Amino acid sequence: MAATFRSQKVAQRLAASSTLRSTARPFHTSTRKTLPISCILCQLWPSRAGPSNSAFISISPRALPHSRRAFTTTSCVSTNQSTEPSAAETPPTIPNAPNTTTYYTMFPKTLPAGAPPSSPFTVDLPTLRREFLSLQNTLHPDKYPPGPTKRTAETLSATVNEAYRTLCDPLLRAQYILRQFHGIDVTAEDGSGASAPLDPELLMEVMDVQEAIEEVGEGPEAEERIAEMKKENGERVSGCVKALAEAFDKGDVEWARGECIRLKFWVSVAEGLREWEPGMGGIRLIH
């Protein structure tokens, strides 16, 4: 009787176990068919693995490892590019190239102290020319083969040319000093560079000279008159250059600005007188 009861209990447990396995097996089988693998987002957030996220569920077993390898390779390339620049990005250097910080630093032998008032406004032109020729001998583009170094030499040579031309001319030199070291551009439309009104006496004097040139006729007398006016204007230019040098040497920027404007007018008159021809009338002043 007891054996019969135990046999019935065992039979019931086996039947229950068989029923549980038979009901669970289709679930696992179905899961394997519909969800062969889940992506990393589905693993972290299981609630995302629903019908609206079928794109994540359809990833094949081979796709995920492949995409991960590709991502890792791209990251390595990007890191190498940012930390190890190629040799082509390194600018070429020219042996004994000048310091191009300012026009004054390009000629350390002639202007060792730099711009005024550290050094005189007046420049030793013969010494400046010798240093200029020495620099051009170093930077001449024909000394270098075609390529980045040659292009660098061409750029440096053009910069040295411009610096030499500026420092040789008192007006260009004064304009450069005011603009580079004091932020004053006397080539502005108002001629002041500091929004200050022009000197009325200077304007009247320049207009008188211009009217005198317009009244000059033709013939030998006209040419003699123009020659006299050239001499008078040359004295004005010399006086302005002398006053300009004194102003810069004393560090008086406002005085230097005014003299630079005056010099610009007289240089314009000198150019007009140099281009004058009989019968041409007046001259056009650049101010």
Give the SSE map.
Blueprint: H1 2-34, H2 40-44, H3 54-57, H4 63-83, H5 125-139, H6 148-168, H7 170-182, H8 200-215, H9 220-250, H10 253-274
Characterization of this structure:
- There is one protein chain.
- The protein has 287 residues and is mainly α.
- The protein has helices at 2-34, 40-44, 54-57, 63-83, 125-139, 148-168, 170-182, 200-215, 220-250, 253-274.
- Among the domains are: 22-83, no CATH class; 200-274, Monooxygenase, CATH 1.20.1280.
- It is globular.
- It has 10 helices and no strands.
User: Percent of residues in beta strands?
Assistant: under 5%
Envelope shape: globular
What is the level-2 CATH architecture name of the domain at 200-274? Up-down Bundle
Our measurement of the CA-to-CA distance between the termini, rounded to an integer number of angstroms, reads 133 Å
- Biggest pleated-sheet summary: none
Number of helices: 10
Number of strands: 0
Query: Class of the domain at 200-274, according to the CATH hierarchy?
Result: Mainly Alpha
Low-confidence stretches at least 5 residues in length (pLDDT < 50)?
Answer: 17-89
